[in-house]
User: What shape does this take?
Amino acid sequence: MRRAATGCRRLAPWAGWIVALLLPVHLAVASPTAFSWLDADGRPSASARDALHLLSDAATDGLSASDYRAAELSEQASRLRTAAEPVDASRATFDRDLDGAMQRYLRDLRFGRIDPRSVGFRIARQHAAATDFTLALHAAAAEQRLPALVAELRPRLGQYDKLRDALARYRALDAEGAFVQLAIATPVKPGDALNAVAALHHRLVALGDLPEQAVLAGGLYDAVLAQGVRRFQARHGLSADGVIGRSTLQALNVAPARHVQQLELALERLRWLPDLADGRFIGINIPMFRLWAWDAAQPGAEPVSMSVVVGKALNTRTPVLSDEMRYLIFRPYWNVPRSILVKELLPAIARDPGYLQRNDMEIVRGGGDDARPVAAGSDSLALLRQGALRVRQRPGPKNSLGLVKFIFPNDDNVYLHGTPAQQLFGQARRDFSHGCVRLEDPVALAQWVLNDGMQWPRERIEQAMAGLASLRVNLARPIPVILFYMTAMVTPADQSLHFAPDIYGHDAALARALAARQPAP
Assistant: This one.
């Protein structure tokens, strides 16, 4: 074995704060100098000025400068700079307050301000204790590299930087103060007369859905304007038909301040996620009814993308969670959940004795795919009502799970699966399921999932779907699956900013939780 060097290699000037950031929290931390943020004359140091700028600029990351007392700290710094002879108490107060504010700012930037579990999300908060922010902060301050530390702590997902850029644009729109409500009598179809042509043109240009130099037909809702409206509709989860109906007009009249809040909440949620920048993962954005599958090892490859159906907003919401996909099952059985059996199937069977047979369903005793079928009759139906028996749907084209399901074991017992109800994917709003996620193109996802050295070409996948028996395939490596909730997102397909309605009320709940958060002491 090669002997370790006896001397110490001198670290590059920028390396100190990186090493400090990676040190576990239980290591002893050397005491900083008497004042971490003051120079030899007792005035705010260059790093203190950098820190104050970062805190004052916290809004660029969707954070609030007031949470870190940025204005008050700037006033303290100004007094220290102009005082004839700063007193020790003032210096100590400023040094302590700035140090505490910066540590809180760095924690919030890295891990988020709110524990996702406190707002009902099944995403474990990352281990903030594993990072020694005190040591990392002091090392970066000593090297005068605070901006570099902040850049390193931001989420590495490209989505984060894109949303930061979008937030800056919408803040600028909000600051202009020229946003007025469009007064349009709906519906308006392409070719119809329209008095608000100029106002609509200005709105579409401001939002990036229409080029400023577009030539318009005065007083007419022409093809140029209609194309801009279609783009706007597609970005807002509406049917892109070019017709200005009530929903489209309401979306056009949403003030920029509301979109600023959506972007801020989206940035907060990205800070909750584990680091996914280096591997494969599947993400489902619930309110946008969309799935993407990425592979960071193939940066130039287009992600797999498809529409999905999620849980009903009223009573069977799809949970927000993070877990790992471990296997998939071709030609699965559907074991009907007790809640669906009681609320839907038993009433249907009572109305129609042939319901089970017509839907390829059977009553069975026991658990597992090898459970024994029981003949339907008054006795078995009575036991079914009592919970002694259960119902399952046999594999095949009628099966509610389609011909493949993807399993990432979780406490909510949700998974991804195909569906015979393909017509639902033609609708703009797609919250119809009992909680699981239905896939528009399960074959494409199976091909992507199994494209990990497992020798599963599309032909073999289609053969497994058309086979006679269920088939479980374990993955060579688990794949992270994130069921997330963001009403603002830059989508990979067109790299444009999309907004979605808050169908589950999660935005409103998170906004309340953030508003209740106390400023730094």
About this structure: The first helix runs from residue 15 to 22. The radius of gyration is 28 Å. DSSP finds 17 helices and 15 strands in the chain. The longest strand covers residues 471-484.
